[in-house]
Amino acid sequence: MFSAWLNEVRLRVATLFHRRRLERDLEDEMAFHLAMREEKLRQRGAGAKEAGYAAQREFGNRTRFQEVCREMWTFASLENFWQDVRYGARMLRKNPGFGFITVITLSLGIGSSTWLFNMVRQWVIEAVAFPQPSRLMVVWEKDNKRGWLGPTSAPGFLDWREGNTQFESLSAWSTAQFNVTGFELPQRLLGARVTVDFFRTLRVPPAVGRGFLPGEDQPGAAHVAIISDGLWRERFNAARDLSKAVLRLDGDSYAVIGVLPEHFHFTLMGRSNIWVPVVFTEPVRADRGRGWLQVVGRLAPGATRETAQQELAGIAARLEQAYPQTNRDSGVLVETLTHEIGKHVGDSAVYTMFVVATCILLIACSNIAGVYLAQALARQKEVAMRLALGAGRIRIARQLLSENTLLIPLAAGLGVLLAAWGGEWLPTAIPYENRGYLPNYGRVYTDGMTVVYAAGAGLLCALLFSLAPLLESRRLNLTSTLKDAGSAVSAGRASLRLRKSLVAFEVILALVTLVPAGLTVRSLVARFGDDPGFRAEGVQTAALHLPSSEYRDAASIRTFYGQVLERVRSLPQVERAGVSRAIPMGHSAPSTEIRIEGQPEPELGRVPFTRINAVTPEYLAAVGLHLVSGRFVAEQDGAEAPPVAVVNDTFVRRHLAGEDPVGHRVRLGSEREWRTIVGVVRNVKLSSLGDPPERQAYVPFAQSPARSAWIVVRTARDAASLTAELRSAVLAIDPQQPISQVKPLAQWVSEQEAPFMILGQFAAAFGVLALFLAALGLYGVVAFVVQSRTREIGIRLALGAAPGTILRIIAAASGRMMLIAVPLGLFGGWGVGRLMTGLLGVTPNDPLIFAGSVAVLCIAVLLATLLPARRAMRVDPLTALRYE
Amino acid sequence: MGEPQDKGDLLQGTLAMLILKSLARGPKHGYAVAEWIHEQSDDVLRVEEGALYPALHKLELRGLLRSEWGASENNRRAKFYSLTAAGRRELTAEAEQWLRLSGAIARIMQTA
Question: Which of A91, A405, A538, A869 has the most CB atoms at less than 10 Å from its CB?
Answer without folding.
Answer: A869
